[in-house]
Task: structure prediction
Amino acid sequence: MYTYQNDSAINMEIPSEISKLLTNDLKNYLVIKDGHVIKKQLEEQFQNIVIEDVKNKIFGNDIPFEKYPFLSNFKDESYQYNIEEINSGVVIEVPRNVVLTDTLHIFYVQEEIDMVNNTLIVVGENAELKYFEYLYNQSSSSINFVSNSIVKENASLSYSGISKLNRQAMVSVIRNSHVYRYGRANYSVAEINDSTTDSKTNIFLEEKYASGTAKTIAITSLEQEAKFHQLIEHNAPDTEGYIENYGVSNNNSVLVFEGCGKINKLMKRSIARQQNRGIVLGAKSRLDANPLLLIDEYDVEASHGAAIGKIDEEQLYYLMSRGLTLKNAERLIISGFLSPVTKLLSTEALMLDFISSVENKTL
Result:
């Protein structure tokens, strides 16, 4: 349990795919490779928060799972394996009343060993954090990535990221958020993996007036299979939860969205809404959207919908009549379709990286 490579054994070189993203306009970031922070750049405003290697917490007997015992109770086999075998991760704690205007970027890199990462984010009362993560691997590996967030009273967490893992990886991702009175947790993640992927985003609205959004943008291609689950559970009245899925399935790939809005008994005046939009590009590609509402109370608002199909022929005709080729017209439409993620990217290098990945997966 909790084994790590010796620091002296780590290759400190940053992969070129990551290095090109560390431009001068990227102000605040960490690069974590095989469980070790190999580069760190933080402005003065981030000196007011705790950013610490999870192994320092564990070996220093300040174990997060003991401080927040409910974190260890999540019923999932992959999650329990993660807790037992952690070899990477970071703890981020934002004190109460601290509002961070810039985004904290963390690049998680797998090079030599399987990644078993566990990240914990705690946003204190009246505090605000913008967090961006980038997942990347170089070798054939198993990726087991867990992140938990605790958003306290009247706090705000904007959680975004890109997951860019190659086809040699087998991937399990679990992101959990526990949100308290007047807290806000907004998750927006672009999944542009080539790997077989199983991903879960769970937001638990624990006290009155809490709100959460789980937004997933995913593209699959070739023979890839990927499944994305979203759950927003209302454990208090007067809470709001929104699930949004945007997907593109190409070639012979299979892409599945399973979203669930769950309003428990006595959680009156809560709102659960869900929408799914998808484009099917390949003749043999498949995109399933399975929206689900579990409602155990009458005085609530709940809805879901799904719109899945091919690219609109009239849109293609219009763009091609203006001189675009069929492929360029398709790319333009897809870029617009995936625009919810591009506005979250803080630098031109990150945006160009995302656009290039989208184009490669939709050729």
Q: What stands out?
A: Residues 258 and 343 are 25 Å apart (CA to CA).
